[in-house]
Design a protein that fits this description.
By secondary structure, this protein is α/β, with parallel strands linked by helices. The chain has eight helices and seven strands; from the N terminus they run E-H-E-H-E-H-E-H-E-H-H-E-H-E-H. A seven-stranded parallel sheet has the order 3-2-4-1-5-6-7, sandwiched between helices. The longest helix is centred in the first third of the chain and has 14 residues. Bound molecules: guanosine-5'-triphosphate and magnesium ion. Guanosine-5'-triphosphate binds next to helix 1.
Length: 199
């Protein structure tokens, strides 16, 4: 049996995680790559899960808690069920915007599922970068630190100069990491993200 690989989409609340993962899933579907999506939400009503299912994807929701802490056992059970029942080529995990992706990666590693590779994509909202740096800098840094590569989302909302300035700041915080500019509106960067995830 071919093993699946896993992609964790990290990023603060409202950064564009669900929007990007739907684009990734659509690209995979075109290539006949099977995708399952595991989405963790804070509230009881799973809005993201419902949106994803409405598009016809295999979606598993873990609502009302955080998969990197209180729901870690539920995450590991869900992973085993996905591996057994769906066994996708690619599993995309969207943790809550308050989760630390390296903890999720460790839980994937110790869940004993057949995942060959786990990639962490770290999303930073171009439009809200300055606000987050002003108010939540330490958390923001910790959240992005374990990323294999970074994505600046919503670049359609900023000028090229603004985007480049933010990109320089992000690079300063994460030396040596590649940064992909992405817009879900224009489609910029999405193929590049898929290429990097698929390896
Ligand atoms: N202009 C623009 N808006 C975007 C882009 N990507 C996402 N958005 C919008 O940003 C908002 C948040 O996007 P989501 O994909 O729900 O963000 P999220 O990170 O999944 O949010 P939570 O799950 O609540 O943490 C939505 O209104 C999206 O339509 C983009 O590239 N450009
Ligand atoms: Mg979301």
């Amino acid at each position: 049996m071919v093993n699946m690989f896993t992609c964790i989409i990290g990023g603060f609340l409202g950064t564009g995680k669900t929007t990007l993962l739907m684009k990734i899933a659509a690209r995979c579907r075109k290539k006949e790559v099977t995708v399952a999506i595991l989405v963790n939400e804070m509230g009881e009503v799973g809005i993201d899960g419902a949106t994803i299912k409405a598009e016809g994807y295999n979606a598993v929701e873990l609502p009302d808690g955080c998969i990197c802490c209180s729901l870690s056992g539920s995450l590991q059970n869900a992973l085993k069920n996905i591996d057994r029942d769906i066994h996708p080529d690619v599993l995309i995990i969207e943790p809550t915007g308050l989760a630390l992706p390296h903890k999720v990666k460790e839980l994937v590693r110790t869940s004993m599922i057949d995942s060959d590779r786990t990639v962490i994509v770290g999303l930073a909202d171009t439009k809200r970068f300055d606000e987050l740096m002003a108010n939540k800098e330490e958390f923001f840094r910790r959240q992005l630190l374990p990323s294999d590569f970074l994505v600046m989302t919503k670049v359609d909302l900023s000028t090229k100069e603004e985007t480049d300035r933010i990109s320089n700041e992000l690079r300063g915080m994460n030396p040596g990491k590649d940064i992909v500019y992405v817009s879900a509106i224009t489609g910029e960067g999405i193929d590049e993200v898929v290429r990097r995830i698929m390896g």
